[in-house]
Amino acid sequence: FVPLRVRLRVSFSTMLPVSTIVAGVKHLFSVVTILFWVIYVIVRFCRQGWALVKKKEHTMPERLEKEFNHKFVQLTDVRLHYVEEGDKSKPLLLFVHGFPEFWYSWRYQIKHFAKTHHVVAIDQRGYGESDKPRGVDNYSTKKLAQDIKEVIERLGHEKAILIGHDFGGAASWVTALTYPDVVEKLIVLNCPHPGAFARTMWKVKKQILKSWHFLFFQVPWIPEITLGFDDHESLDYAYRSKFAGLKNQVNFTDEDMEAWKATYSKRSVMNAPVNYYRALAKNTADIKEMSKKIVKPPVLIIWGEEDPFLVVECASLSQERCKDGQVEYIAGSSHWVQQDQPEKVNEAIEKFIS
Q1: Which of 126, 146, 237, 261 shows the smallest number of beta carbons within 10 Å?
Q2: Which pTM value belongs to this model?
Q3: For the domain with range 62-353, which CATH number is right: 3.40.50.1980, 3.90.230.10, 3.40.630.10, 3.40.50.1820?
Q4: Of 166, 256, 307, 340, which one is the catalytic site residue?
């Protein structure tokens, strides 16, 4: 028999620190997540066998090579591929894609704006024909912002009208926050300001559910394997499924899908894009720092209202973190707004930059 006071004293004195408990919970969650996806892979393999991972041949459509001017630019630690159109003496419009995309996701904007601007659409580091450095640290938003700044300078411009979508939007937000002098105007499509995303991620239940892929991409190796399953069915899901795909499917042709699969069917090509998400989770201090900052250059936020990955509240919360910001909501559009509703997006951009 042990007196109650003694038992309580022992219990309180042996309690673990809160930080240790939190770390333990995170570790347990990670283990459970890994086990879930390991079981998923095993079940899929048992059902489909080697056909699940069999590679199919995909060829980049010739039109993409013939109709666009392809170039490379050497930066401090990477060489980036980009497509260039228009007069180099005119103001620079710099387009930055997201995940899982490449320069071609701006096909409806490149030719359109080449009439009035020097238009450049890059393959971000780790994507397409650009260099793919190893290691998570090479894909922090600070690295991406530095790339954008250097591209502007290497192309002979002091400033650019910066246009980013999805993770390209994240890189663009950080560029405008870190190097405001090189951003004449900022246009972001379906990507929240770091502070807006942090707020919705933890306070809006719908966003927590919509962000399941952020957690999945923290698992080692399995995302890279599963994203390539069944001839990259993940791309069919992203762009053509009823849940995630474009609402206007006529804007995403079989030729477009062939271009995507030709880009993403190369060996080990998925590691770098997934590392973007791992770097985001690893560099929480950077995100916290950026979350507090106000964007100084004028900002246009274009938001496809039927985005299955981000709640629409992200747009207005992002506007609050801009010194001079406005929001253009695009009805009947998915997350892939610049492809889904190109006419409306182009019109909004034209109005903002004129």
Answers
A1: 237
A2: 0.90
A3: 3.40.50.1820
A4: 166
